[in-house]
Each structure stands twice: as C-alpha cells, then as structure tokens.
Amino acid sequence: MDGNYSQNDLSHVVEADKAHVWHHLIQHKQFESKDPNIIVEGKGMRVWNQNGKEHLDAVSGGVWTVNVGYGRESIVKAVADQLIKLPYFAGSAGSIPGALYAEKLIEKMPGQSRVYYCNSGSEANEKAFKMVRQIAHKRYGGQKHKILYRDRDYHGTTISCLSAGGQDERGAQYGPYTPGFVRVPHCLEYRAGDQGAPVENYGEWAANQIEEVILREGPDTVGALCLEPVTAGGGVITPPEGYWQRVQEICRKYEILLHIDEVVCGVGRTGKWFGYQQYGIEPDMVTMAKGVASGYAAIACLTTSEKVFELFKDNADDPLNYFRDISTFGGCTAGPAAAMENMRIIEDENLLQNCTDMGAYMLDRLGELQDKHAVIGQVRGKGLFLGAELVSDREARTPMEEARVQAVVGDCMQQGVIIGATNRSLPGYNNTLCFSPALIATKDDIDEIITAVDGALGRVFG
Q: 54 and 48 in contact (C-beta within 8 Å)?
C-alpha cells in the first residue's frame, strides 16, 4: 500500500462504513463487535486492507471478476478519455466504443452476431429470458415459453434469475418465483452415485436426463435451456465427456434455444475466450459480465445468433414486434471502452495461453494436496478456474461440514491468501474450495496459494 491514507482518514472510513453501508452477503450483527474488512488498494494480484495487511487474491476480486489484475492504468486511461468525450447516451442510439467493442467481441465468437449491452450478469440473463418469452408469443402462441435450468447452476439475483437458479439456499425466503422455469439434474460425475447414475457413459446419461425432462414437460412447451459451461458457484463442475455434444443434439432435435451463461467463464477464465468453446458447441444466446472489463467498469452483454436477431425484425409494421427492452446503464460508454482495452491486454500479453499453462500447473499442485490430505475427495477445473471438494470420508464421499470448509477459508485469510468456497448455496453440499486467480498468475503465485491451503488443511483437520 502506498501510504497516501492517514490513519485518521481510514478510521473515519471504517466508522462511516459501519454506520451506513449494507454489504453484500454479510450478516451485519458481527460488526457490532468488530470492524468490516475494507479493501483500500490493489496491484497485480495483491490487495491491502485498512490495516495495511497484504493479501494474495486467489479469487479475482472475491467474485471471479478482476481477470487482468489490479492497477491497469491503460484501462483507466481508456475509460477517462471516453468519459470526457461522451459518458452516456441511451442505448437506442449507438456509440463509438459500443460499436467497436461489439465488432471485436463477435470476432471471437463464431456463430454469434449481435450484442445487447446492459450492466450486470443478472440483467443479461433476464434479457435472454425475456427474448425467449417474446419469441414464444410471436411464433408459438405463447406456448413454447418454459426455460430449463440445471441443478447447482446459478444465473443471478433477480426473482426470475433465482427462479432459474439451481442453488436452493440462495433462493430461500425469496419466493414465490416466476412460473415457467423447470430444473434438470446436475452433471457432477463425482456425485453420480447420489443420482443413482451408471458408472460408464455418465456424460451421455446426464444429458439424457435433460431430454427426459423435456419429454415430461412437452417439447412444444420448452423454449430454451440455460446452462453454465462450467458450473461456477455450484462447485466448479467441469462437464463429463460426451455431455455437451448430446445436449446440443437434444436442443436441435426439439428446436430449443441453447443459452450459455458465461458470466463467470467468459473472456478468458477457462483458457479460451469463452468456456463453451472448450466443448465445440454452438449456442443461440450467450451472456457475460464479470471478466468483460475485469471490474474496471460495469458492463454485461447478451449476444445472439443472427437467426435469433432476425426473429425480432419480421413483420415490421406491427408496433409490438421488436425487443421492447431497455437497460439504462447499458448506454454507459465506460463499459465498452474498458472492455476493449481489457481484451487488448489479454491478447498482447498472451493471457489465454498463460491461463491454460498456469491452470494445468495449479491442477497438478492441487493433485499433490489431494495425495497428502485425505479430506480432499476430488480436484477439478478448467484453466484458472479450479475447485477442491472436501469430504469427511473419501471412500463414502461424505461431504465435509460447511463450517469446517469455511474454517479453511478463514485460515488462508489469516495467512494473507484469499480463497473462496461454496457457502449458503447447496443444502448439504457446501464443501468445495474455489480458486480463480487472475489470468496473470505466475507459478510463484500459485505456489503461495497451495502453501496456504496446505497449511490450513493441516491446522483445521489435524
């Protein structure tokens, strides 16, 4: 930390925070007896709090966002220059950064054609759901309106996004939910036994469970299937072999739109521009947010194929026959300006390859921890997006108690390393440690993370 903040200044900030800020995902009763953690500054992969304590950030801003690391002056300059020229105009008109970033983004996404700007992943998914519903009314008399979603996947915080959420504890106490959303089973092969699934050809079996739901609901009522390419907060679940190919076949067979939620995986997290590109599938709609501008500006995007876009152009004489939607802050120009520079950094610094290489290295290092600590049941991941599932009995695969998993997270924090874990999301299965270091991570960074986890596991489990 550069020391530009006096202790008096920081003390005032802490008191102001305690008195007035409503933090995300926090029970505030604790702040009656202790101070909140305030992150004051970041550089590279490290952040400092109000007490000057340095932490290595292994979760890219706490929620998988700051993909190119902290302190990127070129992104700040790109945003500042754009704000002086034009900070905002409603999305019914275009802007220079909006047009240029859309062009650059679509170049990375063969099969996609159009970009709809908004300001959060939840909002992007909500836009996609609205498109599906409007298409159902336009072409199918409103009947083909149901949206399938997967157990353990997460798509955002609005009521409709929670209606499409496969994490029951996240949605608890927020019902009643939006009708027309239907759950399909998860595809975590490690938990196949819990599903009564066969050992062989699990990927095809898991995909076929989706078809069974479609047939039960009626194919003429199902408009879209919304899935994460790699399940994120549900336990960093990489899809089993054969799964995605079969999912694509099923969607085409029943004329169901395939909506891929890349809010976490998009723009480099898995080692390709988008997670779905790891599996050779062709989505109809893609949503993205976190890594689009690495948190330097608020931006989210919904992209669609030209086929989807054309559905909103036919019968132009009908005054209701277009996508009648607006996102106020989708008109902010800072987002696409930051996203352009973010993408340039990833390209010029070859960060997709670094993500692939360092991800493989970290997976190997986690494997070493698995050999050493019996509480690690499985390690898994793609690129720099990794998880370690903790169990109290490796042979029985009994999920570790959530409190003890959180104790590992807390121990790492005390050591100055920030890691994540599934928590208050999946009843009985909040037992996976989560890692998503920035795409700039080095072997030294990863070794520091592994050392911290190793020490924490030793202390928590003896």
A: yes
